[in-house]
């Protein structure tokens, strides 16, 4: 007979389920939330402030309450208390970082509270389904902005334009197709999307800086360009600076060489209202450039100028990056993007087909979305490749055609796999975080996964030992050699290890 879980167990299960979808974002919000009880379908929660309540209410509670409902059949009402002491937050707050101004986070929080009532008020919100957010305030404004994005802003913009004296200057490097209206929203990216909309609307301290992170090809750059397009259209006098971290570095080196540092600093400190920096991880180990960026950041942030940074990792996982810079990245909002689920992938392929004018049947859309799971760039590439091949060979893109083309390219891809692909697949298989294999973590399960990844890279990609040492967190080549030998020996001796390796090899041989 199935035992009935206690209410605390139900809550813990729902937390684990929800957190699993986006651990970084979950942790960021839930150290501002306390569980106070679950009785007769009423879930009592306390939020540090109104801002936390709104975000948690909008982005996390539908999943949480759905999970409890699926286990109990109850219709869940949420009773919030806002403000007061949080003695047992759902997530323990991170310890203060060494060297960080101790009150900075609190000051930020105080800045956040300014947006709404912060003490002692209680409220109810119904989550009897995905009924959405019942409160008012900033998040609702964000949501409205998002809904209006495709239609209303044009009429609004026309009004703006009638009164407009200023025409936004051209901005180098922006892709005209990377707009909010071309961005498909799903559970994997809705937080990042809402945060970007907020930042584009001059979100204030709560969105500053906005740190967008996630794996490659998942839409970070798209969102950053969308912010720039939106701001250019709605506030054309805003001075936007958009650079990749690599370009920032090159400009800095050139300015040093040409003794034009004043000009360089003016560009990034004085003549900038909105700074957008892509792929900040590129500054790893570039100490002097980090120092320069740090000062630019401080000047802009103190002047309440919006900063948006993208990265392939969470701030805490950035390696060889100054601690004080990492700490600043967490002052505002950290929003991650995960790989999209099937429904979102189908919607993305549909949208891309529509934008590119590609005629394609629904069953083929679904097949493409099912076959390419890793990232959106690859999904898009597959669609474009199919369309190009179909046009050259005068075929229509039907299911047979898609099947044979995707099979061809996935076997080619198996031969082209990179060290990063192997690391990603191994992390996924062993349920580790992307940085674990490169970290100094010697925990048995992490070390084993690391050895397996080294072995697979050596066997499949024929990488040299020093090359692999560098790719796995700058380890010595002898460490790699012993890891490869160990796994090779275990493969013969231990059926469990053999099963892991075979599963991984199968995964590496497929489109994912
Ligand atoms: N949700 C989405 N809706 C529509 N298109 C998307 C979405 N997510 C990603 N894309 C598309 O996928 C492609 C890759 O996205 P983008 O360049 O923004 O990725 P990224 O996260 O910046 O990757 P990288 O870290 O490699 O720079 C782009 O063409 C973008 O338009």
Automatic annotation (TrEMBL):
Region feature Domain IV, binds dsDNA, mapped onto this chain: 391-512
The subcellular location is: Cytoplasm
**Which coarse location class applies to the principal site listed for this UniProt protein?**
cytoplasm
Q: Give the matching SMART domains.
A: AAA (SM00382), Bac_DnaA_C (SM00760)
Give the residue ranges for region: Domain I, interacts with DnaA modulators.
Answer: 1-144
The UniProt record lists the keyword Cytoplasm:
yes
Q: Gene3D superfamilies from the entry?
A: 1.10.1750.10, 1.10.8.60, 3.30.300.180, P-loop containing nucleotide triphosphate hydrolases (3.40.50.300)
PROSITE patterns, per database record: DNAA
Q: What is this protein called?
A: Chromosomal replication initiator protein DnaA
User: What organism does this protein naturally occur in?
Assistant: Pendulispora albinea
Origin organism lineage:
Bacteria, Pseudomonadati, Myxococcota, Myxococcia, Myxococcales
- The gene behind this protein is dnaA
